[in-house]
Amino acid sequence: MPPKTDTTTNEEQQDDSIQFFSHAKTYDDFALLACKFSRKAFQYVSNPSFETMLEAVKTNGLTLKYIQGQWDDLVYEAVRENGLALKYATVQNEQICEMAVSRNWYAINYCHQQTRNICLLAVKQNGRALQVCLFQDDQICKQACKNYGQALVWCLDQTHDICKQACNNDGLALEHVWLEYKTEDVIETSLRNDGRAIQFVSPLT
Q: How does pLDDT run across 90-145, given as a tens digit for each residue?
């Protein structure tokens, strides 16, 4: 059976556009329309309505930079579109921060108040986030080292499992393994991953 094709004609599309524009009778309507279809329109809008602000951040979360008098729903929509919009948020709560970090791990740098779950969300995306996490435990460190072995250097309290997880991701993470955890299986895991890790194995081992 042949695939379905879009039979919409240019004339029909134009008719739809004309119909949409025909309803925009006020400046607010035109502003809303502009922000809906352009990521850069908002900064040129005069006295934007709440609806226009909301539409603008849904289109481009970083538009939050230009909005004063922010509120929870507005900020939430902004960080849902772009986690880094948290940098410009004057309103924050746990839900907003979790959404921001889930969209972009780097947003943890802009959280006014970290939680364990926020830290876990960040390291699940990128183990480099561990260096700025205010919460660490076995699960957070394992998760960080699972996707970025070199994160072991930021673990405040190593364990055998954490070290093995790190070396399984990056054999050269053996450099940061505390002596007490340079066990035979950890070393073997490192060498199987990257033979260059031999430089971090003592001849007396």
A: 999 999 999 999 999 999 999 999 999 999 999 999 999 999 999 999 999 999 99
Measured distance CA(199)–CA(178) in Å, rounded: 15
Q: In this structure, what token pair is assigned to residue 82? A: 């772009």
- Residues 6+ positions from 117 with CB-CB distance below 8 Å: 98
Rounded to an integer, what distance in angstroms lies between the CA atom of residue 92 and that of residue 96? 6
Residue 159: exposure state from Cβ atoms within 10 A (0-12, 13-18, ≥19): middle
Which of 117, 109, 115, 119 is closest to 155 using CA atoms?
A: 119
pLDDT in tens, 156-189: 999 999 999 999 999 999 999 999 999 999 999 9
CA 29 – CA 109 distance, rounded (Å) = 37
Q: What is 53-91 written as a DSSP string?
A: HHHHHHH-GGGGGG--S--HHHHHHHHHH-GGGGGG-S-
On whether the CB atoms of residues 144 and 165 are closer than 8 A, the answer is no
Does 81 have pLDDT greater than 90?
Answer: yes
